[in-house]
Protein: Flagellar motor switch protein FliN
Amino acid sequence: MTTHTFPKQAVAARVDLPEQHADAHAEDSPRPMLELLDGVKVTVDVLLGRTTMNIQDMMTMQSGGVLELDRSIGDPVDIALNGKTIATGEIVAVDGRFGVRIVSVGTADR
Structure:
C-alpha cells in the first residue's frame, strides 16, 4: 500500500454545493443528444454460439474441421453492441446473405 504525505500547510475546507434533484431537468428532451449521435456508426455482433477447447486441440485445427457450438439450430442468437447483449434474434436469409430477425430487445435478464 502506498502512503501519501501532504505538506503541513494543506488545509481541508468544507464546500457547500447546490442541491440537485433527479427530476431537475425532466422537462429537457433527450432528443438534442440523440440528434448528435445520428451519424455515429457502431459495430453490432451476432453471437451464434460458443464452445470451449483446450489449447492443444486449437493448435491442431485444420481446414474442414468442425466446432460444435452450445446452441441448437433454431435457438435464438444474441445481438451485442460493444460486447453487451442488447437483443436476441433468429437467423434468416436475406438475398443470399445472413440476416437476423429481432425477437426481443432489452429483456429483463440483460
